[in-house]
Design a protein that fits this description.
globular; Rossmann fold; single chain; 36% helix
Length: 486
């Protein structure tokens, strides 16, 4: 029995239980939209998580029978040329870029000749490697949640196998001055244009207006020049920080500060985790922690990251607080490992974007995250409850003198131990790497790839509903776009 089989059976049992508890009145059939059925199934899924509790009242819904809800996610891989994915890796490994200069000991020429070259180990790029692991899972002969199909008409979603982040990072290294310009000298722009021209001319895109197409945009600047054109698609993003310009323009015209643009939303898109850069610490190897709070990163950032400089000034001289500049590259990796594993709490303030791989390094290190980022969105929320192993602090409170220090000291050793135990239960959920050459092999059991497919799976009914609604619109009609999603 698959995961989805058990969830649907649980859904049926929940509905039956709700009917038994209802008053003895003539049976009332409450018609449900496909989106509602998806919501019910999703609520039932959440109820099975050890770190999430769904109120009983939310399960007392009377609906028609759940028919046609997918048991596995059927995925068609768009037919892109190899140069848009593994060919990019061949190009990357065949040349010495400044962004991988720290890794000269790697067998670059041998990597470049592989059928499935490894993803760069440079942390600046590796942190965005979800695109690599998702495609590898689809190419693997596995029995996971995602089932590859041979025709787009048989698919629930269409996966676009473009390594958009790698493309952007290679351009930033080889020609940063051209990155934001639509010129022949910008190889990343040319690749974006080639991918979009091919995808948008396909019958599959035209049939759905792109709503069932999946793009992986983990880097905040991935697909920078064509985002508006793919705004109808399902985007896999680490947060919405890459849309700060659109957010700013949209909210500046609204006195309430509401974001009005429709390029990204929690309803349409999926938040996915960064790839953590530090090794996972098993809770059996944990030891007493001497530092109260640890942070290693850049002091000066833009936008929401301006809070870092202010926090630095407040906390830098505090006893048992370690605040230092740096990044877990080849020079600072061991320092970061020791720093996080020796600290009770790890600071996670906003940077240029609301989140970073630092959060997932902290989870891997069993260091309780202290999240100071008011606009943060987190992966797999609902599937897991972050409040069971993280501390959330508003920017306003964090900037009050001594507030954060006193707040963290008030959390007892018993509470901290329990939070680390809870964290250990979910560490595997953020694991991408499966230790198979080229990633071609079964995904980590119930890991990041599986959870991403689950998130997409539960969007399928609403995607299909949107496509059907689009089909029935008569020519010449105008229906305004509404997406006030959060």
């Amino acid at each position: 029995m698959t995961i989805c089989d058990s969830k649907i059976r649980l859904l049926d049992e929940s509905i039956q239980g709700a009917n038994q508890m209802a008053p003895r009145v003539p049976f009332l059939f409450v018609p449900c939209s496909i989106g509602t059925l998806a919501f019910v199934a999703y609520v039932v899924y959440l109820s099975s998580s050890s770190l999430y509790v769904v109120p009983e009242s939310q399960l007392k819904l009377q609906c028609g029978p759940v028919e046609g809800f997918p048991k596995r996610l059927r995925v068609y891989i768009s037919d892109l040329e190899r140069e848009m994915n593994y060919g990019l890796l061949e190009d990357y490994w065949s040349k010495q870029d400044s962004r991988n200069a720290d890794h000269e000991d790697e067998p670059r020429n041998r990597y470049a000749k592989m059928e499935y070259p490894p993803y760069p180990s440079n942390p600046l790029i590796k942190q965005y490697s979800a695109e690599y692991w998702l495609l590898a899972d689809l190419l693997s002969p596995s029995n996971g949640l995602a089932q590859r199909v041979g025709r787009p008409e048989d698919a629930d979603v269409i996966f676009v196998p473009f390594f958009a982040t790698l493309s952007a990072e290679m351009q930033l290294d080889r020609g940063k001055a051209k990155f934001r310009h639509k010129t022949q000298q910008n190889a990343d722009y040319l690749r974006q244009r080639k991918v979009l021209d091919l995808i948008k001319s396909s019958p599959a895109w035209k049939a759905s207006h792109g709503r069932d197409h999946v793009f992986v945009l983990t880097d905040p600047v991935a697909m920078w020049h064509v985002r508006e054109e793919i705004s109808s698609a399902l985007l896999l993003v680490v947060d919405f920080g890459g849309w700060y310009m659109e957010d700013s323009k949209a909210s500046s015209d609204d006195a309430t500060g509401m974001i009005q643009h429709t390029q990204v939303s929690l309803l349409k898109d999926v938040i996915i985790p960064y790839t953590h850069l530090l090794p996972t610490l098993n809770i059996s190897e944990d030891h007493p922690r001497e530092t109260l709070l640890y942070f290693k990163g850049a002091r000066h950032r833009h936008r929401g990251g301006l809070v870092r400089d202010k926090l630095w000034s407040l906390l830098d001289k505090e006893p048992h607080f370690v605040i230092e500049e740096g990044f877990p590259n080849s020079m600072g990796r061991e320092q970061s490992i020791q720093g996080m594993r020796n600290a009770g709490f790890c600071l996670h303030p906003a940077g240029d974007t609301p989140t970073s791989c630092r959060l997932f390094d902290a989870i891997a290190s069993l260091c309780i995250p202290v999240i100071i980022s008011d606009n943060i969105e987190l992966p797999f929320e609902g599937m897991i409850d972050y409040t069971k192993f993280s501390v959330f602090v508003s920017v306003h409170d964090a900037l009050q003198p001594k507030w954060l220090v006193n707040h963290l000291k008030a959390i007892s050793a018993t509470q901290r131990r329990k939070m680390r135990e809870n964290m250990a239960q979910v560490q595997h959920i953020f694991e991408y790497e499966n230790n198979y050459p080229g990633g071609i092999g079964p995904a980590v059991r119930d890991g990041a790839v599986s959870h991403i497919w689950k998130k997409i799976l539960f969007k399928v009914p609403s995607i299909k509903e949107m496509i059907v609604r689009e089909w029935r619109k008569p020519n010449g009609s105008h229906i305004p776009v509404r997406c006030h999603c959060t």
